[in-house]
């Protein structure tokens, strides 16, 4: 593994499946060297995609990820904060320990990545950070309070980073609606499915295209938020 100064470098958290995988594949197809940080180290073998096992909820693993990435490839130009966990539990009956797991992944994980990777971007006066949020942000709904709260807080963090890093870092929030992935199957608790919701679903590749579009705006222009959902989706 060697550094290549002529190639853009991206770090994608949660990039072994679903939206993260689609983003990693899109960036790789455009010639970007992609480091995928995921609980699952395995993935499609591609010369432009490198995998590193990492639990973003653990500070020491983020530190290790930073050292490994920068030593082998250099500092990322693109930081794609995608790793997340879903949960559906009633606030009066749910398990606070599970809620903590969601918040550690969906909120503290991105914060740790920001703290590790963005100082170099600021020092170099360039870089892009993309937060994969959800239309659930700022949308209280039964059984979805913890997940919605985590994404609402994530969007506040994104806007704060944008303000603190002006004018050096472009910050984008991408908020998907219902996406055809295994997200619901992998929730900590809850049993919704795309079919049960009956509002259609978009492909993860559509979200990857949104990310690529945001990364490629001309200098001096930023796309700060993109919402993409099935036309039939009513929230």
What's the SSE blueprint?
Layout: E1 9-13, H1 18-29, E2 33-38, E3 49-53, H2 59-72, E4 78-81, H3 96-124, E5 128-132, H4 145-164, E6 170-176, H5 194-197, H6 204-215, E7 225-228
Parallel strand pairs: 1-2, 1-4, 2-3, 4-5, 5-6, 6-7
**How many domains, in number, for the residues?**
1
Give unreliable regions as ranges.
none
Gross geometry: globular
CATH architecture: 3-Layer(aba) Sandwich
Helix content: 25-40%
Mean pLDDT: 92
Pairing-aware structural class of the strands and helices?
Answer: alpha/beta
Describe the sheet with the most strands: 7 strands, parallel
Q: Strand-residue fraction?
A: 15-25%
Concise synopsis of the structure shown:
By secondary structure, the protein is α/β, with parallel strands linked by helices. 39% of the residues lie in helices and 15% in strands. Strands 3-2-1-4-5-6-7 form a 7-stranded parallel β-sheet, sandwiched between helices.
Description:
This protein has six helices and seven strands. It is an alpha/beta fold. The chain has one domain (9-228): 3-Layer(aba) Sandwich (Rossmann fold). Helix 1 (18-29) crosses helix 6, helix 2 packs parallel to helix 3 and helix 3 packs parallel to helix 4. The mean pLDDT is 92.
């Amino acid at each position: 593994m060697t550094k290549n100064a002529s190639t853009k470098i991206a770090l994608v958290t949660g990039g072994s499946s679903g939206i993260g995988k689609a983003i990693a594949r899109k960036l790789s197809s455009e010639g970007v060297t992609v480091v995928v940080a995921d609980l699952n180290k395995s993935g499609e073998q591609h010369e432009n995609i490198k995998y590193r096992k990492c639990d973003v909820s653990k500070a020491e693993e983020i530190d290790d990820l930073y050292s490994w990435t920068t030593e082998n490839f250099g500092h990322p130009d693109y930081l794609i904060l995608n790793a997340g966990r879903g949960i559906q539990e009633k606030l009066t009956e749910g398990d606070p320990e599970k809620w903590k797991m969601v918040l550690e992944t969906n909120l503290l994980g991105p914060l740790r990545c920001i703290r590790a990777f963005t100082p170099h971007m600021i020092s170099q006066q360039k870089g892009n950070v993309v937060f994969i949020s959800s239309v659930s942000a700022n949308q209280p709904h039964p059984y979805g309070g913890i997940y919605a709260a985590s994404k609402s807080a994530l969007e506040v963090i994104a806007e704060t980073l944008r303000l603190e890093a002006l004018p050096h870092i472009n910050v984008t929030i991408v908020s998907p609606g219902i996406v055809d992935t295994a997200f619901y199957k992998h929730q900590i608790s809850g049993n919704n499915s795309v079919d049960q919701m009956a509002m259609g679903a978009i492909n993860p590749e559509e979200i990857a295209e949104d990310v690529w579009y945001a990364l490629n705006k001309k200098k001096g222009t930023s796309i700060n938020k993109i919402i993409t959902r099935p036309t039939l989706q009513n929230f």
